[in-house]
Amino acid sequence: MMSKSVIEISNLYKQYQHTNNFVVKDVSLVIPEKEIFGLLGPNGAGKTTLISILCGLLKPTSGNVVIFDKQYNKQQKEIHQQIGVVPQEYALYPTLTARENIIYFASMYGLKGKELHQKVDKALKRLGLLNFADKKIVTFSGGMKRRINLIVGMLHTPKILFLDEPTVGVDVHSKNVIIEFLKELNEKGTTIVYTSHHLTEAENFCTDIAIIDHGEIFAHDTPKNLINATKNASNLEDVFIELTGKQLRDDV
Ligand SMILES: Nc1ncnc2c1ncn2[C@@H]1O[C@H](COP(=O)(O)OP(=O)(O)OP(=O)(O)O)[C@@H](O)[C@H]1O
């Protein structure tokens, strides 16, 4: 039986002000509940623009986004209570500690008291950062900041978690910790929507993948079906090169 859809995107277009081109072009997608959906594409393909529209940070030029049967122009607050956002840029206060940052953002979702403190400790421990809880963010490495960014986005237990390149620029250890943590959240019921450059990571992690280039979705299917449907492809990288004509460096 098909899962019910939690995100429905129809005929989405985006053109930034004072530019001549659309950077998202006629994108229509349905994302079912409990999916791990990966949006893959080369630099400048439109991944950040599209995911920013889906989490309500940007307005589309035209088209429609429906999340849990709700639309941003009518029920923005209701949608925001049910989603979590982990942006590509660190959304953290550098001179506050990790714990202070997390508590500051979590309190905006109404988390407080003992429950909040227990959740903070549990997440910090799970992501290997409990010993750094009371250190200032300014002293953290890129991988540690990414993990705090992730806790900030998920502590209120969102039904959908949007992540823009959550593993970019981090070492293998941080990357594995992040991916394993996201898998656990997904097993507990969170739908994950993420963008990435990492084809091998996405192939192993995602239940469904859309490949975007020049603002257009070229393909959308399970990793296995994408590979099977592409002549001589043995992995997602082969599919990607066939569809976009580009080699996407699977860098750290
Ligand atoms: N604020 C903006 N104003 C004008 N053009 C923009 C703006 N933000 C992004 N763009 C352009 O829109 C296109 C898509 O950019 P976007 O950041 O969505 O791509 P991306 O796939 O996320 O790239 P990357 O992998 O490098 O992060 C690019 O050509 C970019 O230069």
UniProtKB/TrEMBL annotation:
Top-rank taxon of the source lineage equals Bacteria
**SMART domains attached here?**
AAA
User: Which PROSITE patterns does the record match to this protein?
Assistant: ABC_TRANSPORTER_1 (PS00211), ABC_TRANSPORTER_2 (PS50893)
- Which GO molecular function entries does the Swiss-Prot or TrEMBL record give? ATP binding; ATP hydrolysis activity
Please verify whether the record's keywords include Lipid biosynthesis: no
Q: Which InterPro entries match?
A: AAA+_ATPase, ABC_transporter-like_ATP-bd, ABC_transporter-like_CS, ABC_transporter_ATP-binding, P-loop_NTPase
Q: Which Pfam families match?
A: ABC_tran
UniProt key word Nucleotide-binding: yes
- Per UniProt, which keywords does this protein have? ATP-binding, Nodulation, Nucleotide-binding, Transport
Domain (ABC transporter) ranges: 7-239
Record-linked SUPFAM superfamilies: P-loop containing nucleoside triphosphate hydrolases
In the record, the note on similarity to other proteins reads: Belongs to the ABC transporter superfamily.
Q: What is this protein called?
A: ABC-2 type transport system ATP-binding protein
**Source organism of the structure:** Mesonia hippocampi
